[in-house]
Write a structure and sequence with these properties.
The protein has helices spanning 6-21, 92-110, 134-142, 163-170, 213-222, 230-242; strands at residues 43-51, 58-67, 73-82, 118-121, 146-150, 178-182, 188-193, 203-209. With 247 residues, the protein is an alpha+beta fold. It has a domain at 42-146 and 206-242: archaeoglobus fulgidus dsm 4304 superfamily (archaeoglobus fulgidus dsm 4304 fold), CATH 3.30.2170.10. The longest helix is centred in the middle third of the chain and has 19 residues, at 92-110.
Length: 247
């Protein structure tokens, strides 16, 4: 059977995103989320799909699980995979989610006691063209709380690298300071967070699933030793080791 034309595929994907978007929970759903020190949270996960330079078909799907609050690695899973969906801006999840979901399912089957209670995704959640980025997609399909943390600003829904945005970044004085990312509709889609005193460059946090934005921002800051939250930093470290580089 031949692949559907690109236009038909996009319509199919948009419809799927709209359907799954209705299932996103933008509020806290777990007891530990309401605790000032996240009491009851013991395991945090991080996921990413990394590519070999010059190869857009083969990739490495990676999952790490860290203890909380000491952020020590409890579990690592790296699997080479062959991608079947094309890369199309705004539809990254259809290319990456199946493999990240498989990694979580392998862990649940083989070592269920290490399943993370929340997953940090190297990408966006509600801060997305149609308010359904990779962190939302993975969250809904896995049923786990997910947080999207992006290193670069997605210029979408009226949010852009304006002078005002740059001045807001400059006003972030210390780790934990943040400001809202407000779309053209007036909705807060995420927050820019100065995640560490050591880094003046923010990360962009948005809800994936089963967590409120304020809790997602607070948890991201709590998991940062440096600019990037430790679960994602550990995944990126695995990627660079595989490429013979240093973080």
């Amino acid at each position: 059977m031949s692949a559907p034309p690109a236009e038909d595929l996009l319509q199919q994907w948009e419809s799927e995103q709209a359907r799954l978007r209705q299932q996103v929970l933008e509020e806290d759903t777990e007891d530990w989320q309401g605790s000032p020190d996240f009491s009851g949270l013991e395991r945090v996960g991080g996921v990413d799909l990394s590519f070999i330079k010059g190869d857009d078909v083969n990739a490495c799907a990676q999952l790490v699980v860290l203890s909380y609050p000491d952020l020590q690695v409890l579990y690592e899973d790296s699997q080479m995979v062959t991608l079947t969906a094309p890369y199309i801006a705004g539809f990254l999840a259809f290319r990456e989610t199946p493999f990240l979901l498989e990694a979580l399912q392998r862990l649940k089957k083989n070592q269920p006691t290490l399943l993370p209670q929340v997953v940090f995704v190297d990408g966006n959640g509600l801060f997305h063209y149609r308010e359904f980025g990779l962190a939302c997609h993975l969250g809904v399909l896995s049923g786990l709380p997910c947080v999207g943390v992006a290193k670069n600003l997605l210029q979408v829904q009226g949010v852009n690298k304006s002078e005002e945005h740059q001045s807001q970044i400059a006003a972030l004085q210390r780790g934990g300071d943040s400001f809202p990312l407000i779309g053209a509709s007036g909705k807060v889609l995420g927050k820019a967070l100065r995640s560490s005193d050591k880094s003046s460059k923010p990360v962009y946090v948005s809800v994936g699933h089963k967590i409120s934005l304020d809790t997602a921002v607070r948890l991201t800051h709590a998991c940062c030793r440096y600019r990037v939250p430790e679960p994602i930093r550990q995944v990126l470290a695995c990627r660079l080791v595989a490429k013979g580089q240093k973080l």
